[in-house]
Amino acid sequence: MSSPAAPGRVVIVGASLAGLRAAETLRREGFRGELTLIGDEPHEPYDRPPLSKQVLAGRASPAHTALVRAPDLEATWLLGEPAAALDPHTRTVTLAGGREIGYDRLLIATGTRARPWPAAEEAALDGVFTLRGRDDAERLRAALAAGPRRVLVIGGGFTGSEIASVCRELGLPVTLAERGPAPLSGALGAAAGSVAARMQRAHGVDLRANTTVMALEGDGSGRLRAAYLSDGDVVEVDVAVVALGAVRNTEWLAGSGLAADARGVVCDAACRAFDADAVVTDDVYVAGDVARWPHPHYDGLLLAVEHWDNAVRQAETAAANLLREPPAPLRPHRGLPAFWSYQFGVNIKSVGLPTIADEVVVTQGAVADGRFVAAYGRQGRTVAAVAVDSPRWLPAYAGFVAANLPFPPDLHASDAPDPLRPVPAGLALDDRATHSPTAAVTGDGPTASDRSTHRDPRSPLTAPPL
């Protein structure tokens, strides 16, 4: 392509939020060439956050989660057949059925999928579910509507906690097993997780912290009937939801020569992919949940962020840079990670990166009142903030994080505790993660080997009782 408006072929692998927003940005920026989107699901792009909230609760149907898209996109949609291989030398993407799609510029936005239960026979039991896509939500919604005796949620991250919240809203008994010290502790630390634990128990959740599910058992017809816990209990359940985080969709890139592994595809701050020799490419870009990039604000640490807002902003940045022609400058992706969750009637919002913090302090409001803001610090610098039913204050904290203000921040707020009392954040050690946090440091450099291992979720952090 000699200019943004010149004929050319752009292929986007991944037809979800990031892929759609990238396609719209390309057209908005003047690209008039061939545009192809490849997606492994048969559905057109849809919104995922409502799946674990409105859809499971029956307030919306899966069909009503479709994303609004530009009417003049003029794209070719190849849905229901995933990409199987990439050859950067011939600039071709091979689909699972063998068809080859050529490109001049490529954007990888393949996202993630739900991490399955590790025992295949147990995972195949009728009544065992994961929740990532629209079809998952439809099946799980039907199972909850049938009125199971008890639901077991395996994993207390944001998805698991939201599912437990919906179960209680529907009046269903629910047990949540979390290998860490508290729900949300993998993303927000044990200190904030203790607040989530109290909230869950107050709403009737049978919360089992520091507990793993050792095995799932079915009856003679292959129907789930019980779960064996590391605390020695056997819980009779009809439905189990595996909420153990996400797996990044990178297997199709094996042999492509890109710096890609189970942690994601490494790219620079302009979203250009690195190859296996740590050389940045000019025709392959990455965006969304599958990307790992050096965030300028966090000393170049490679981040992988599973947030709606990040997928949109990174896709827009990648698309703009994909059309760039020298000597025009590259646009860096530098937005702070941000997310939100609604559970047990409480709105939780965050900005920054709590997962790297060593301290946390309540800066406004009071935990006992259920409305507060907590700031996170790392080595004397403010790196994140979490607002519980106090969303209007969060933009100010985003400014504190972006400005590298000292920790704890000196706000002089009328509702600030006096004095501020920082406590250890209580983040899990890297080798003790219980589920994928929504934003995480993922390692050093584009060619560093993947030394990380996802521990078997059945392995407790402490020895189970005899």
TrEMBL record:
Q: Where is the FAD/NAD(P)-binding domain?
A: 9-315
Keyword Hydrolase on entry: no
Query: What SUPFAM superfamilies does its record include?
Result: FAD/NAD(P)-binding domain, FAD/NAD-linked reductases, dimerisation (C-terminal) domain
Q: Which segments constitute the Reductase C-terminal domain?
A: 339-413
Q: Where is this region: Disordered?
A: 416-466
Q: Can you supply one Gene Ontology CC term for this chain's record?
A: cytoplasm
Which InterPro entries does the record cross-reference, listed alphabetically?
FAD-oxidoreductase/Apoptosis, FAD/NAD-bd_sf, FAD/NAD-binding_dom, FAD/NAD-linked_Rdtase_dimer_sf, Reductase_C
Ordered alphabetically, the record's keywords are: FAD, Flavoprotein, Oxidoreductase
Cofactor(s) in the UniProt record:
FAD
The Gene Ontology terms for molecular function here are: oxidoreductase activity, acting on NAD(P)H
The domain of life is Bacteria
State the name under which the record lists this protein.
Reductase C-terminal
- Species: Nonomuraea pusilla
Which lineage is the organism of this entry classified under, starting from the top rank?
Bacteria, Bacillati, Actinomycetota, Actinomycetes, Streptosporangiales
